[in-house]
Amino acid sequence: MSLRLSTVILPYRRWNEGSRAAWERAEELGFHTGYTYDHLSWRSFRDGPWFGALPTLTAAAAVTDRMRLGTLVTSPNFRHPVTLAKELISLDDISGGRVTLGIGAGGTGFDATALGQEPWTPRERADRFGEFVPLLDRLLTEDAVSYEGDFYAAHEARNIPGCVQRPRLPFAVAATGPRGLRLAARHGQAWVTTGDPRLYENGTPEQSLEAIRGQVEKLADACADIGREATELNRILLTGFTPDRSRPLESLDAFVDFAGRHAELGFSEIVIHWPIPGTDFAADHKVFERIAMEAPAQLR
């Protein structure tokens, strides 16, 4: 399988002041999927413009025809499976079946307290995620669902006619811990990693590769435990959070080298950030576009 190249477009601009143009250009450049972050606000962008992920993807669906669309990632921090399922089914319909749901357990950022709750512990995030994913799976595949859990409930929730994609739109499960990897193995059509965050500040690219290799091996073990072939899951690397940081976007050759080393670990999709001047995602846009247009052919 050829290595697919995708991009993530942060929703920090008004639709008619640059956002729409970016989504249209992403399709012109041939990206496999255009993702966006699903946050209420995020890091250094907190005090500036930031728009909702699902309305943004709905607008993107209206101005694109071929590129897949998705979140990296949606989490339980401010989402409920019942309402999320309804919105996803609608988005999948509007896009003609082009949606992938990136989904993770959430973290401790602004989303964790925006609804007035205390931040959840890592264990509670894992517990919630363990309920969230299976319930969402049911809501997207069954016409009517009733459920009573420790954290979530559904009472005769109707989701007719269901997804355009059958049996439902694909899940790309972001996980590195054992419980999350088991969810990816059981419910995912893809697995997402950003690498090992402990290596971001002081690690080396070589250490990062070894850490990711270990994650891949643990994913394979989780699949083997339920009798599933690990090769059935696409492996997605969201870049920008390994010790390499933005260096892979400095030139076509640098990116091909970076992507090739990860392709050897079985990754089928590499996601790069649409350049944002003055941020951690700053990059030369001409180089970025050259990577989009020329790198996939060199990585076949």
Task: Please state roughly what percent of the residues sit in beta strands, choosing from under 5%, 5-15%, 15-25%, 25-35%, 35-45% or over 45%.
Answer: 15-25%
Helix- and strand-based class?
Answer: alpha/beta
Adjacency order of strands in the biggest sheet: 1-2-3-4-7-8-9-10
Distance between the termini: 7 Å
Number of helices: 8
- Mean pLDDT, to the nearest integer, reads 97
Low-confidence stretches: none
Overall geometry: globular
How can the largest sheet be summarized?
Answer: 8 strands, parallel, barrel
Which range best describes the helical content: under 10%, 10-25%, 25-40%, 40-55%, 55-70% or over 70%? 25-40%
Looking at how many chains there are and whether they match, the oligomeric state comes to single chain
- The Cα radius of gyration reads 18 Å
Element-level helix/strand string: EHEHEHEHEEEHEHEHEH
Number of beta-strand segments: 10
Give the arrangement of secondary structure elements:
Blueprint: E1 4-8, H1 19-28, E2 33-36, H2 53-63, E3 68-74, H3 81-94, E4 99-103, H4 122-141, E5 144-148, E6 153-158, E7 171-174, H5 178-187, E8 190-193, H6 205-225, E9 234-238, H7 252-263, E10 269-273, H8 285-298
Helix pairs in contact: 2-3, 3-4, 4-5, 5-6
